[in-house]
Each structure stands twice: as structure tokens, then as C-alpha cells.
Amino acid sequence: MPASIGLVERLTREIVETIRTENLQPGQSLPSAKVLASRFEVTVPTVREALRRLEATGSVELKHGSGTYVREAINRRILDNPHYVPVDLAAAIELLDARIAIEPGIAELAANVQDADAVNSMESALDNALQVKTAVPAGHFHVELARASGNRALHEMLVSLLAIHSRTQQAARTSYDRLRDHDEHADILDAIRRGDGFEASHRTRKHLEAIKTAVLADWADDTDPTEGSRR
Amino acid sequence: MPASIGLVERLTREIVETIRTENLQPGQSLPSAKVLASRFEVTVPTVREALRRLEATGSVELKHGSGTYVREAINRRILDNPHYVPVDLAAAIELLDARIAIEPGIAELAANVQDADAVNSMESALDNALQVKTAVPAGHFHVELARASGNRALHEMLVSLLAIHSRTQQAARTSYDRLRDHDEHADILDAIRRGDGFEASHRTRKHLEAIKTAVLADWADDTDPTEGSRR
DNA sequence: AGTGTTTAAGTCATCTAATCACTTCAGTGG
DNA sequence: CCACTGAAGTGATTAGATGACTTAAACACT
What we know:
Two copies of one chain form a homodimer.
Chain A: H1 7-21, H2 33-39, H3 44-56, E1 60-63, E2 67-70, E3 78-80, H4 90-113, H5 116-129, H6 140-148, H7 152-168, H8 178-193, H9 197-222
Antiparallel strand pairs in A: 1-2
Helix pairs in contact in A: 1-3, 2-3, 4-6, 4-7, 4-8, 4-9, 5-6, 5-8, 6-7, 8-9
Chain A binds a DNA duplex through α3.
């Protein structure tokens, strides 16, 4: 019987186990590939293959000439596919539909939990949104909203969704009105602060549906009226 | 300026691009590592590191002595972290909370869309659920429900959630009553068939909340009444 | 002809060894 | 004090070789 899974597979798990048992936090460095090789009694190329696997899921980062470092994603359950290549604009709409389906429920939960740190972060995201030099990344408000729910799985889910969204929306330039975006965010935050789950859910849904409408309108504008497809 | 990203990083993208342009479908084999190496003018170990990255995200599979094959996940946006190690039982509850937050919305969407193939698949999942030799994997009904929504992102999300769930619930043995599970699924499917989004959403939420209650009850049973914590 | 075994080619798996490139930091000299 | 330099450590990539596994064709036996 093939009870023997690949050596790299096993080695990968052992490295993760090492990170766990030695309580290495994101930012800290792993032993060098050479050290890991001797410790697990394999050769350097094998170690590198295992590290490449962990790199693909964002669990570690290989810095040339410096070392190998633990990254945040090692604690994440839900990830976005780093090798996914965005295809058409319809995929962007599909992502928005997905958000419309799940974010209202997240907003409701956030209203009931109200993780203090995350709620404050939503507030600051709100403030910075109107600044010209917006250091806050797009969608940050929504990510923090998910974090306010206190559920890490939901948080990771929205992080993943927006990561894909940002890669996809190269095509779909969302020209959603900045001021309107801010106001609607403020309304949502208000409902969450009051602990009104129903309103938070409802306003979040309306907000996202409005964005979808705007994106669709942009699409219609971009498309040549005399022609159905582009390229 | 670091205009130079790693060679492996670039190579990985080129391989994905090759799969795309040559329209290789899941199950089909990639050229051998040696061929890829000469085609992209790198050496075999470098190719292998790139393939390991793709392997980690389930985009390809390396079969010893056979070849490298494309896998389904190459078309997925949302993934579960293959290196995630389940920790405590509280994480299982957190996953259930996440499902309670998002699945009602998915059920509502499913009621409005009703992807024919997926709805039929839900039906068959329902039928097989009561068989002793249950070939249908756990949670299959819920995955198909998400597929019935017609939104691939949502479908992938639930696949990921349940993949993690199955790895976590080694600890949390859900002893949810099989018959009750079946009946509640039937009720949900009924609402979806009727196109009643509100009912589908409501019944899905109640169903998941009932499961959560059952899991918590199991937990209480397992825990020694005289002691608050274990380990 | 049909069946089972053997053989050979192709492929991934792993190792050994070496060179190159990048980062860091301590030490040097200004 | 500061800028420069150089050495050490580390990852990046290459090269070649050996082993193990899979597959299927060639073969021998029935």
C-alpha cells in the first residue's frame, strides 16, 4: 500500500509544525534552508520545494539574500488563488453578486458583536476616504466591517474577495462617486454602532447593489453602442 | 529599482499562461519538467519549484513516474489553506457562525436563480443521505445549494469552508440527527424550487443554527461537568 | 486469439556540488 | 559622525547524476 506520501509533502507539514511549536510569529525568520535541510535530514533543493509551497499560500516569504520569513497568511483558512488570472468583466459582476449575497449577513453580525478595535478602524477608514492622499486601500472599510463581526473566517473571506476584486477591476474601473460611497459607509457604521443589525444588513445590501448598478452603467458607456463586444 | 521579481515567480505565471493559451483542461497533462525547462530556458529544479507553487494551490498535481496534470482548482478564485492546522474546538464553532452569516443569503440567491443541474444534484444528495452506504460526502447538499446560486465565487467559498470544516470536525463529532438533517434539507430545497427566496433564506438559517446548538450540546457532554476547561 | 509477464522508455523524486546574486552589518577610513 | 567598503550569511540558479515509479508496448505462454 502506498502509505508513502511525497517527501516534500511531509517536509512541508513538518516545517509548519516547527513554526507552530516554536511559536514563530509573522515577521520572524525561519532557520536557513541549509539548517532546515540538515535538521530534517534532506537536501537543500527539497527544502526549497517545500518552502515554495508555503510561499504560494502566503505562509512564508523568501527574501533573496536575507532569509525566509513567516507571513500572516499562515494563520488564514481562506485564501485567494494567487495564480488566478482575471478573465472577463462578467467575473467582476459575479464577485459583486457574491458580496451582495454575503456582506449583509456579515454586517448584521458586526452590529451584534461590535469588535471595538475594528469599529474604530472603520471610523478612521471613513475619515481618510475623503483625503486626496488616501493611504487607505480600497475596500478597507468593508474588510474592517467583516473584522468587526469578530469572526476570523468571515474576515479572511472578505479579504480574499477584495484581493481578487482589486486584481479584476483593472478592467472594471469603478467610478462610483466618492462622496456617495463615504456617506453610505457612514450610514452603515451608524447602524452598527447602534447595534441595529437589521438596518446594518439592509444598508449594506443597498450600498453594494448601488455599486453594482454603477459598474454596469460604466460598462454600458465603455461598450461601443454600435457593437456588442469589444477587443 | 526592483523591476526584477523572482525567476520562479515569473516562471509560474508563464506556466499558467501556457495552460490558458493551450486550453489545457483539468485532467490533461503538462509537458515534462525537462521540456518545460528547455522551453523557458531554465533548469529542471527551477521548473520544479514553480510546479510546487502551483501544486500548493491545487492548480496542478505531480504524479511520480507519470507526469504533471492540471487540476480543477486552477479555475478557482477562493481556496482553503492546505497548510492550515486545525486548532481548538472553538474554531469549529466559528466556522459554523460564518456559515450562518452567509448561507442564508446564498440560499435566497439560489431560490431566485435555480441552476437546473445543481438543483437536481441537491435532490440526489437528499436521496442518498439516508442510505447506509453514503457515497455522498458530508456537506454535499450545502455545496450544491451554493452551486445552484449560479455564482461560482459563492460556490468556491462554500467548498473551501466545508473543506476546512471536515478537517476541523475530527474533534467536533457532529452527532446531528440524520433524519432531522434530511428533513430540513428537504424543506430548504422545497422553498428553492418554489422560488421563495425569503423562506429558503430563513430555513437555511434555522437549519444551521440548530446544528450549532447540537454541536454545542455535544461539547457540553464531552466536557467534564466538574471542570470548566479541558487539556 | 487471449492472457499474463517481462521489459524498456519516459517521468518525477531526490541528491550532490558548485557558482552567482543579494542583503546585512560591522569595521574602516575620511 | 558619516560614508564607504568588504566579508559573511543567505537565497537563487545551474549542472549533472542516480533512483523510483508508471505506463504501455513487446513478448511468451496457454
